[in-house]
Design a protein that fits this description.
Layout lengths: L20 H21 L6 E4 L5 H12 L3 E4 L6
Parallel strand pairs: 1-2
Helix pairs in contact: 1-2
Length: about 80
Amino acid sequence: MPSWSAVPADGVIPVPSEVGLADAAALLADGRTALGLLDRAAIEPGATVLVEAAAGGVGSLLVQLAKRAGAFVVAAVGDER
């Protein structure tokens, strides 16, 4: 893999120094999915939302986004097997 690549400036997303590149890449992928789900669900303030797999990447973002949208969030997680 090359150390450097040329890309259009509008294709670059700055990563804060306190965020590792692996975390930034995961957030980009999971964040896009979570935002798409939130948009599709059209959550309104006061709604009750169940987030399954709330401890995972997409689920933990959905919990935060739904709360920010004013929803009451019920977060479900599995147990160790």
